[in-house]
Design goal:
mainly alpha; 5 strands; 254 residues; three-stranded antiparallel beta sheet; two-stranded antiparallel ribbon; 7 helices
């Protein structure tokens, strides 16, 4: 009859296994931690979190700066739109009598043609500006789209002002007295439909959205099975792999 073994928690004080375990624990490197307690965060984790937030702030600041540059560029480009509108818009002839100033041709469509010319030019400017912005920055972003819309609106307002300022004078009575009765002169350049000012920003946003959807960078597709712990389908072992027999047990013999 054999004596029972000594339980692990009652080992003698001179047990060499306890000494080796204590020495191994003392040699383990300790990681510096900020603060005390179980909720303390290591220095490496704290530095990592701060670095990620800084990169996000830098990228957001860069997007805002690019959007501001787009607004300035499109606003200045409105001068070119205004000059083209002044050059291509049809003129509305007027004629004066001793009593009032009248349209020379009451059935002419020059007044509507001025609005149509502005809309067509604004649509072209919007498409070209959106294509240029997408070419230089294909990743896009919300600040960039907002910059396109705001810059297009400011450019349209500036183009309207340039066309009216450099066009025929708006003092029709003084102009009629200057040229004399029965002599035709050009009416002031006007934009009857104020909704034409939205043609540039709307065209810019739509074209940029279409280009981003067609040619923009694609985000990598995540593997759903791997991400959620699904190991995937189990491969078929095939007919040549023998399975456990009917007499197979737990690997021990009686």
């Amino acid at each position: 009859m054999t004596a029972p073994l000594t339980p692990p928690h009652r080992q003698p004080p001179n047990d060499p296994r306890q000494k080796s375990d204590a020495q191994a624990a003392a040699q383990l490197p300790s990681r510096p931690r900020h603060g005390h307690g179980p909720d303390a965060v290591t220095a490496t984790e704290a530095d990592g979190d701060g670095g990620g937030g800084g990169e996000q702030d830098v990228s957001l600041s860069a997007e805002v700066a690019r959007a501001f540059a787009v607004v300035l560029a499109l606003t200045v480009l409105g001068v070119a739109l205004g000059l083209l509108w002044l050059w291509l818009a049809p003129r509305v002839p007027l004629v004066s009598t001793d009593k009032a100033v009248f349209l020379k041709d009451t059935e002419s469509e020059e007044a509507v043609g001025a609005d149509g010319t502005f809309v067509l030019l604004a649509l072209a400017f919007g498409a070209v500006s959106a294509a240029l912005v997408f070419w230089f920055n294909r990743r896009g972003g919300i600040p960039l789209v907002v910059g396109l819309a705001l810059g297009g609106l400011l450019g349209s307002l500036l183009a309207w002002g340039v066309g009216v300022w450099f066009g025929p004078t708006d003092d029709v009575v003084a102009r009629a007295r200057e040229v004399g009765q029965g002599v035709a002169f050009d009416a002031p350049l006007q934009l009857g439909a104020k909704g034409a000012l939205l043609a540039w920003p709307m065209a810019a946003m739509l074209v940029h959205l279409a280009l981003t959807a067609l040619f923009g960078p694609r985000d990598p597709e995540s593997e759903w099975g791997t991400a959620y712990g699904d190991p995937g389908p189990v491969p078929d072992p095939g007919p040549d792999v023998p399975g456990p027999g009917p007499d197979a047990g737990d690997g021990t013999r009686a």
